[in-house]
Amino acid sequence: MHAHRSRLVGVALSVLLAVSLAGCSSAGALAQAVGAPGHGPGTTRSSTGLTDDDGYIPDGTSLALDSDLPAVTRLNPDLLSALRDAQDAMAAEGGGSAITIADGWRSERYQEYLFAQAISEYGSEEEAEKWVKRGSDSEHVRGGAVDIADAGAMDYLNRFGNEWGLCQVYANEAWHFELRTDPGGICPPQSADGRG
Ligand SMILES: [Zn+2]
After folding, report:
1. pLDDT digits (tens, 9 = 90+) for 50-66
2. How many A from CA of 138 to the centre of ligand 1?
3. E strands within the chain?
4. How far is the CA of 101 from the centre of ligand 1 (A)?
5. With CB atoms 3.0 to 4.6 Å apart as the test, which of 31, 63, 133, 139 could cross-link to 67 if both were Cys?
């Protein structure tokens, strides 16, 4: 009994060690990749072991709409095709740069991680809930939301996104878009509290 138990402890310790080593190496890789000040939260994120498979996109980077990473490929296909159509129109009108995303589909554990971060930032679970949705409550986790990275594309979608059903949902999140109306329809009023 005793021997069995200590073997289990040994296994648990080596798992912990492996996890913390993995965390260290990815934090280091991210710090190298970003290499700029002001990315403290990004470094913290990577130390949790979040990866491409969680839809994790490191701070300061973004993905094109034809990316084959889960943050893009696990989006609702209707949302993705609306974004691609909007991108084509924007380019045809000389609007320049492509639509890139800073956040798209997220795993539930990625969302829970963001929620945990909000708790430490805002001091309580109650306060955090005003700013970040929990796990599967987030439209990002359902693949129904994107955060636009490029300011020009954000502006274009804010003005014309409804042509493809794309709407800004939260008044204080100019970057967060969901399919909220029929193509050419009117977007619903924006809600005041951004919890995308
Ligand atoms: Zn969002």
Report:
1. 999 999 998 889 999 99
2. 9
3. 63-64, 100-103, 145-148, 166-168, 176-179
4. 10
5. 63
Concatenating the DSSP letter of every residue in 39-89 gives -HHHHHHHTTT--GGGT---TT--EETT--SHHHHTS-HHHHHHHHHHHHH
Find tokens 């943050």 and name the residue.
Answer: 71
Give 181 Cα–ligand 1 centroid separation in angstroms.
17
Q: Please answer whether residues 79 and 146 qualify as being in contact, where contact means their C-beta atoms are separated by less than 8 angstroms.
A: yes
Q: Give the per-residue pLDDT at 186.
A: 97
- pLDDT (tens digit per residue) in 160-177: 999 999 999 999 899 999
**First vs last C-alpha separation in the chain:** 50
What is the pTM assigned to this prediction?
0.74
